[in-house]
Amino acid sequence: MAEGKQSDAHTRAQEVEKESQEAKEEMKELEENPPEKLEDWPSGKAKYQTFGGPEGDHSYDEGPEAKLGPSSLRRHEGGEVTIEGEEVDDSDEYKGDPIPGGPTDPEGRGMGSSDEGS
């Protein structure tokens, strides 16, 4: 009977490893062309994988994360944006679209809206 339990555990371990490998492959595909909308990101096992692979393999600027913007980009109170300590001419160039329903969504109710139950 102990042999059957070991076999079941081995089979389950193989299934988990296969699922993990499939999730890694899905995330690797996303690295080539990252989705622009939150709802287009994976919702299965891949959502638990790190974009760009595990930490330590490469720097931010050498990996796929560089497609998300420069690592030295900083946002400051008041709306200023700097890259490598230099203020950019057009900070709007570095803004993404508002998250639907979020506090900056002009068509959404946003946080703090008092029209609940209307």
Q: If you had to describe this structure to a student in words, what would you say it looks like?
A:
The protein is of the alpha+beta class. The protein folds into two domains: about 1-70; about 70-110, no CATH class. Helices cover about 25% and strands about 5% of the residues. It contains one helix and three strands; from the N terminus they run αβββ. The chain has one helix at about 1-30, and strands at about 75, 80-85, 85. A three-stranded antiparallel sheet has the order 1-2-3, with no helix packed on it. A hairpin with a 5-residue loop joins strand 1 (about 75) and strand 2 (about 80-85). The longest helix has about 30 residues, at about 1-30. The radius of gyration is 21 Å and the shape is elongated. The model is unreliable at about 110-118 (pLDDT under 50).
Q: What order do the helices and strands follow?
A: HEEE
Strand content: 5-15%
* Number of H/I helices: 1
Q: Between the first and last Cα atoms, what is the distance in angstroms? A: 63 Å
**For the largest beta sheet, what order do the strands appear in spatially?**
1-2-3
Count of the separate structural domains: 2
Helix-strand makeup class: alpha+beta
- Average of per-residue pLDDT values: 77
Inertia-based shape? elongated
- In helices, the fraction of residues equals 25-40%
